[in-house]
Amino acid sequence: MTNNKKSFWSWALTPKADAHMLWFIVGLCVLLLLAGLVVQTPDMPFISDIPFATAVSAFAAALVAVVLAWPLQFLLRRRAGYYAGDEAGNGKDAS
Amino acid sequence: MSIEPGIFGGALNNISPGILLIIAGFVSTLLPRVLRAPVAIAVPLLALLHLILMPEGPGGTFQIIGLTVTTLDITEPGFTLALSLLAAATIGGVFNWHERAGLPVSAALIYAGCATAAVLAGDVPSFFVFFEIASIAAAFLVWAGGTSRSLSAGMRFAVINIFSGVLLLEAFLLTYEETRSLAFFHGDLSTTAGLYLIVALGIKAAFPVLHAWLTDAYPESTPGGTVMLSVFSITTAVYALMIFLPGEGTLTVIGSVMAAFPVLLALLSNDLRRTLCYGLISQTGLAVTAIGIGTPLALASTTSLLVASIFGFLLLFMAIGAVLFRTGTASAAALGGLARTMPWTAAFAVIGGLSIAGLPVLAGGHAVPELLVAIWAESGPYVAALALFGVAGIWAHAGLRVPASAFFGEPRKPHKTGEAPAHMRLAMALAVGACLFVGLKPHLEGVPLDLGAQILHMQGLAFSLLVFAAARAWGLLPRDEASALIDVDWLYRRLGPAVVGRVMQSTLALYTGWQNLISTRATRAIAGVFRAAGPQGNIASTWGTGLSVLWVSILLVVMLLVSYV
User: Sign of the C-alpha dihedral, residues B355, B359, B362, B368?
Assistant: First the structure.
């Protein structure tokens, strides 16, 4: 399976597959937005009142997480072996 | 629940299924090595059958120091959770088939048995005893990692859990003093007992700031040990919150923060098992939020979510455990591209991620949207927003980042490895079966599909997936690199020892200075006295005859003058 160039995984691990997947996700988002317009949502405050509330909130939440991850990595990441007292980073830990 | 009056004429009806596992755990250390793995599978399976055959209601009562203790009470949520825990223990036993050492097998059986007995306990003392022994067994499971890191992490785990156990005991004793009853009670946060209770259960359930023991200790066990650890403690702790603090508004706030805050830490953590631990905390946060809401729908959703969480995370921890078993590392910086060599494991990890995210048909497919509807309907916009952030985050790191870092992309380091061993694949396949069963069960029972809620949930997942997939494709996510992550445990692993070290240094310097000062002064004083009164001093030294005569003459003259005057 590993060396078979026609196998699914050989295709799935290529950058071309990544690009296809991105377009697939965009298509899925559009489909779900359309489905949300067609199917009535349960009666819930905020979520039912605002159009595409869940989609926009989830998009915003994910964006916030991605943006915040950048400054936080400098604040919260230390070299491997930090807790073992190995400041040079020669520790084998994966923490 | 009971489909038969009982096996062995009902003789076992008073014995909690968890106790069978505890006994097996102690006995397994005496067994030949080759028998330990079969016992670790067979006994949870037998206990599962025993539970199914048990009659509903209380049992297993006995008298001690004038009190009637009820070790067993089959209730609806307890039964559901115990069934899931025993199924998870069986699957865990299959995953750990390669394990022959006495400690991990024994500790895992006792740990699983105590957690099962705790969710089936009939009163407070039984619950407390089983819950605390589970914590001790879990510490041994961490120590089974066999490294200096696991030894230290296990020690920290034990200290924190024992501390929480003491607080829990205090809460129970204060309540007993007031009510004179051993029955389960609803805690009141305006009392001292209530405060002890929420702090104790907050530690056990990994509330924000009190959570670090979990992410510190769980990843340090063996691959199979972490699989077992991920299931039982946290489920029992959330069950305890359901029993003791349902509808407590504070939990809604704590739970929503708990669902949201681990998201960023999980994205930055390099150890994939630690990333999954953050996902576990996040998912638990959703359950805690629902417990805080406390409506029947919210509490029922909590039980469903716990069951979904058990099998979803079991599957993910097993997939990463299999990677660790094969490659020797769970570091994201050293993995990647393993789908070529471990396609089955990769597929299982993806299914686990989808199950946790709440994809229809899988374990979370019914529970997560139902829980979100309960949260959205009953709580304010901030809680709803944090819960949504948590769900998107769990999906992002446990569902996407973990499989993506381990199995997809370019390999960061070459690993000449094969697929996971057959028993691990079988265990993962069983977990997939369990996820499917849990996901399909409501539909098979005729529970109508809430299509609107499902679409809302899927919209949330798809749009967060879009952001993370785009960020990953365009290189906007922080790079996976071998690193340690600063969390609350930094306070007692780095800051605490540093402060104690400084204080000890300062104290030592002060003490040395004081000692020097005292000894210098004392030495000088002694020297002065020695000079004055020593053998060479004026008083002790031998005077000349002439000088003595002179002093006697002076004395006589003075006396003469005094007599005369």
Answer: positive
Tell me the β-bridge partners of B69: B62
A79 phi/psi in degrees, rounded to 5: -65, 150
Phi, psi torsion values for A12, nearest 5 degrees:
-65, -20
pTM here is 0.87
Rounded-to-integer distance, Cα B352 and Cα B97, Å: 21
Of B20, B24, B32, give the one whose Cα is nearest residue B100.
Answer: B32
Q: Please list every residue in chain B whose beta carbon sits closer than 8 Å to the beta carbon of residue A29.
A: 459, 462-463, 466
In chain B (565 residues long), the average pLDDT of successive 10-residue segments reads: 52 86 94 91 94 85 86 90 96 93 92 96 94 95 91 94 95 93 92 95 95 93 92 94 93 93 89 93 93 90 92 95 92 87 92 89 85 80 84 84 84 82 95 94 81 84 88 82 87 91 94 91 88 74 81 92 86
Q: Which helix (H) or strand (E) holds B69?
A: strand B67-74
If you write DSSP's letter for every residue of B421-487 in order, what string do you get?
PHHHHHHHHHHHHHHHHHHHHHHHTTPPP-HHHHHHHHHHHHHHHHHHHHHHHTT-SPPP-SEEE--
- Selected residue of B218, B402, B456 to mutate for chain A interface (largest A Cβ count, 10 A): B456
How far, in Å, CA of B148 to CA of B410, rounded?
32
Residues of B in contact with A42 (CB under 8 A): 373, 377, 450, 452-453, 456
Res A84 pLDDT > 90: no
- Single-letter residue type at B118: A
Rg (CA), chain B: 33
Structure tokens at B139: 């510490």
Do the chains contact at A25 and B469, CB–CB below 8 Å?
A: yes
- Of residues B330, B408, B470, nearest to A94 (C-beta): B330
Task: Note the pLDDT of residue B484.
Answer: 86
